[in-house]
Task: structure prediction
Amino acid sequence: MQKDKKNLFTDRFIKSLAARKGQTRHYDVREGSGSGFAVTVFPSGEKSFIYIYHCNGHRRRMTIGKYPHMSLADAKKEHRVALKLLESEKDPATERKKARQEERSADTVQSLINEYIEEWAKPRKRS
Result:
C-alpha cells in the first residue's frame, strides 16, 4: 500500500500553520496517512503534535509534544510507539501516564537515597 506523499507533514508545512484570526478555539490538521497523527494550532499560535485514536469505543486524543521543542521526526517516532501500544490493545495515553509516574517516583526515591547518604551517613561514618 502506497502512502499519498503530498499529504505527509513537512517541517515547512507545520511552520506555515498559523492561528486563525477571530477564532478563540484551536483547530486540528491531520496528516493524510490516516494514522491519526495531527497538529493542533492554538489561538496563541502555539502548535502541538497529537494522536487521535479510538480505544474501548471512545475517541481519545493524546498530546505527543509541542512544536518546535519536539521535532517532526521525534513526534513521528513517538506516534509509532503509540500505534504499537494500541495494536497490543493498550491505551497509549494511559500507558504513557503510568510510565511518567514511575519515572517520577524513581527520581524521588533516588534523590532521597542521595540526600540520606550526604546528610546522615557520611557525617556519622566512624571509619
